[in-house]
């Protein structure tokens, strides 16, 4: 059997945080956000290697301030990012050797649980592609260009998709090759599979597996960590 690898995509800037530091390097309860994310995958016994995709101009900062300062149980392989997120994912994918299952995860989701990681690996083996999700709590409206509602979606059929999105390596590479060849922009990696006719299994995520985007998210993450 091949390796089970994590591919962490960390390209977020601090614009919505009003920070001159990229959000992955901001501290949450005394530790950099990206350290907490990497630590979750490093501590998982089912992960073999971790590939971290960073903007080229942030590689040195990461090496000096994270990699040299903290110890990780698994190898951290740094990959330079691309123009779009999907270009960064592709760079990470083609950097891997002997990989059977890959978990693609947002660097800005530091509260992912070990259960979500392990469930994703199991479902990737079973179905080829899987992603965690949570049921939508709010009513979702479709609006027109003027801001008026024109439709109400059935909340029972809606799921907010999280990461890690977990795949058999050969299948997700095929999906990314397809969107590159056809110049298709996707918002997440499950879409790349759907475009080549492959269904993605959605399993139970967690409302605590939040993506850090704003200052409010940082405060929520700290409350969750303090509670645990």
UniProtKB/TrEMBL annotation:
Does the keyword Nucleotidyltransferase feature in the UniProt annotation?
Answer: yes
- Reading the lineage from the top rank, the first entry is Bacteria
Pathway(s) the chain acts in: Isoprenoid biosynthesis; isopentenyl diphosphate biosynthesis via DXP pathway; isopentenyl diphosphate from 1-deoxy-D-xylulose 5-phosphate: step 2/6
**Residues the UniProt record annotates as site (Positions MEP for the nucleophilic attack):** 155, 211
Coiled-coil segments, which residues? Answer: none
Catalytic reaction list: 2-C-methyl-D-erythritol 4-phosphate + CTP + H(+) = 4-CDP-2-C-methyl-D-erythritol + diphosphate
Q: Has UniProt tagged this entry with the keyword Nucleotidyltransferase?
A: yes
Pfam family, any one: IspD
Q: Which CDD domains match?
A: CDP-ME_synthetase
Q: Where is this site: Transition state stabilizer?
A: 16, 23
Q: Which UniProt keywords apply?
A: Isoprene biosynthesis, Nucleotidyltransferase, Transferase
Task: Name the Gene Ontology biological process terms.
Answer: isopentenyl diphosphate biosynthetic process, methylerythritol 4-phosphate pathway
What broad class of enzyme is this? transferase
Per the similarity annotation, which family is this?
Answer: Belongs to the IspD/TarI cytidylyltransferase family. IspD subfamily.
What this protein is reported to do is described as: Catalyzes the formation of 4-diphosphocytidyl-2-C-methyl-D-erythritol from CTP and 2-C-methyl-D-erythritol 4-phosphate (MEP).
What protein name applies here? 2-C-methyl-D-erythritol 4-phosphate cytidylyltransferase
Identify the species of origin.
Clostridium algidicarnis DSM 15099
